[in-house]
Every structure is written in structure tokens, then in C-alpha cells.
């Protein structure tokens, strides 16, 4: 059962329309189940956290927070080296995103912007098989650079104890505390605050459907800020006949192993390349059978190779798709990239697989999915900054501009107080 190869043009919507639906996880069932949990945490605090941890994780805790500085870790030096290299690259990339407050004179008045960090952040790190310590780096480093003063890590407890890698990362990143509570109850603790868990103003990080539902619901209630709404992982690849079919197949499978609902879309003008990629996928399934059923379902049901008549159509479709990850493997990468308007993160050239950005190159891997990059950006320093505008109006400018304020406030029916508040400051009315 090979991957679908579809010959398309812009008018063949019946061929490609299902890929533009922007797949998001249906959280309605999960939301219904987590609402009582959220309410219990809101009203009962730590007691609810301890109770749900025993119920869902089978672990009886005496407390829900720990100070990472009090623990000793024994991390393999080679693993340390890898994470420290990643940390340095991520810091270098995000330091370039720092914002400086500014002001300028406009019509005689000093106007400007002052950037201030959000006051607090919680980073959620899943446990068990879904342990992604790299996401801890991605969530915390830009927040630190933005100047967020209070950061806590939320993660479910493990029967064998917290993963040492998370404790070590908490130490080198100087996180205030680790909250050993997972699931919706962990998100609720961050949003509401409890006796031992301070309230956070913002939360980032991946999680299961219950975590996603809790983040979405609590954000909708205005209780906590979140990163962009998340759906299944996805990659789109624009490639021509010069591309390496085996490498493309590997890159498609690197997304497929995230989950059976992941998608990988190849856009090309070369039918020969399309067929070779399909063959390479089948070879890979034989040679690398780990998570085979998951990868096959993602490739056969959610992925495709779309063969368009020209490269401009490939670019058009990519912008419509607005993928989480976009790889460009052609003879004219920069020209194509110049025409890309919507993508979470772009990977240029044959030696730029998504996995480089996932771990080590320095860009952030917390990205909008489900066509979210049409309106959202990747996580970065800006995510954790607020923009405060200010103005200092001079007496001379107030005198000059009052007649305009008078006319505009009268038009809007607000001259009695709006207009008067300026008038009383003008010459002869002080």
C-alpha cells in the first residue's frame, strides 16, 4: 500500500482539499472529562493535586514541589555535552531577538514603546515515553532572555523518581521549582495557584489531549496565556528532480514517528522523484520497523505526494497549507524561500532536516500547527514580552492639536469630557 501520489493543479480541489482542513485534535471529549478536575484544583488546591496524582499516576506524594538545587545528578558526560551544545546554540539564536525600548518625537511629543517581560511562566514537560527534555530548553531559554523572573517546571512524577535529565536541566537553567504533578491537574495548578504552587501567567509545552484541553479551556477563561493552539506534527517538503529521494523519505518518516495522526506532504513537479520517494518509504518500513504501524498509518492515511505542473503551484500550495515545518530541497532554494509567506520554521537545502531544528541548530521547535502559521509565529523571545506604549505631550503640542481633538470628540459625541480634558490645559483655560 504505497503513499498516495496525486497529480494536481490549483483547480483540482477534490485531490488536495482534505490536506487544507488544518487538522486539530478534537478536544471536546477531553474537555468534558477535565472540567471537574480543574474545579477541584481551584477549590481544594494541594489536596486535589495529591489525590489525583495517587489516582492517575499510582504515586502517593507527600508534597508536590521540589527544589532542583537540592538534588545530585549523574548524567552521562556525552549527554551533557550534547545538551550544553544545544543550549548554547539556542541562546545565541534567541539573544538576537532581544528587544530594546525606544522613543521618538512625533508632532512635537515624545512617544515610545517599553518592553516588559511577563511576570511568570510554567513549562510543561510530559513524562514516560513522551519525555522531551529538548522542549524544556526551547521553552525556558527564550523566556530567560526576555527577563521572565519566575519560572517553574510542571511534570508528572515517575515511580522510579524524576528523570535525572529534567532535574539537571532545571539546575543549569536555574528554574525556581519543579512541580511533580502531570495532566490537567498540573495545568490547573499553574493557572489557579495552590498553597505550594505559585500561579503562573503563561504556560508552554506539549502534552496529551487532557493537557491540551486544560490549556485551551483555561486560556479561554482568561486565566493563563498559552503558546499557539497545537495539532498533530507535520512537515511539508518542496523538492525538484535534484533532491535525494531517500533523504526526503527519511524526513517524512521523522514526522510520522511522532504519532499516527502526523502528516508529511511532498510537493514536487517531478513524477519520477515522487515514485522514488514512495519506493524509499517502503524500503524504510522494512529496514526500520520500530513504531511501524504508527508510521504506516501516518504515511498512508494522512500524508501524500502532490505532483504539480510547475514550482509556483508548489509554492502556492505550501502557503495555503502553512505547515509547521517546511523543507525546501531544490536547485533554487533562496528564490523559493523568498516567496514563502506562511510556515512555522523553514529548512533550506539538502542538509537541513527538521531534526536539526528539533534538537541542536538553535531555532525553536515549539511551532504553530494546523495552518496556525498563517497567524502565529514560532515560540521566541517576543512570546514572553509585553509592549507598553507611552507618550509625553508638550504644552505647545497640546495647544496646537487641541482644535483637532475638539472636532474629533464632537463628532463622536464625547466632547463634554474628552474635549474638555484637553481644553482645560490650553491657554486661557488653565
TrEMBL record:
Keywords: Amino-acid biosynthesis, Histidine biosynthesis, Metal-binding, NAD, Oxidoreductase, Zinc. SUPFAM superfamilies: ALDH-like. NAD(+) binds at residues 124, 185, 208. One of its GO terms (molecular function) is histidinol dehydrogenase activity. The keyword DNA repair does not apply. It catalyses: L-histidinol + 2 NAD(+) + H2O = L-histidine + 2 NADH + 3 H(+). Its cofactor is Zn(2+). The keyword Cell division does not apply. Its EC number is 1.1.1.23. CDD domains: Histidinol_dh. Substrate binds at residues 233, 255, 258, 325, 358, 412, 418. It is an enzyme of class 1 (oxidoreductase). It comes from the Bacteria. Binds 1 zinc ion per subunit. Pfam families: Histidinol_dh. Pathway: Amino-acid biosynthesis; L-histidine biosynthesis; L-histidine from 5-phospho-alpha-D-ribose 1-diphosphate: step 9/9. Zn(2+) binds at residues 255, 258, 358, 418. The active site is at 324 (proton acceptor), 325 (proton acceptor). Catalyzes the sequential NAD-dependent oxidations of L-histidinol to L-histidinaldehyde and then to L-histidine. NCBIfam families: hisD. Belongs to the histidinol dehydrogenase family. This is Histidinol dehydrogenase. It comes from Leptospira bouyouniensis.
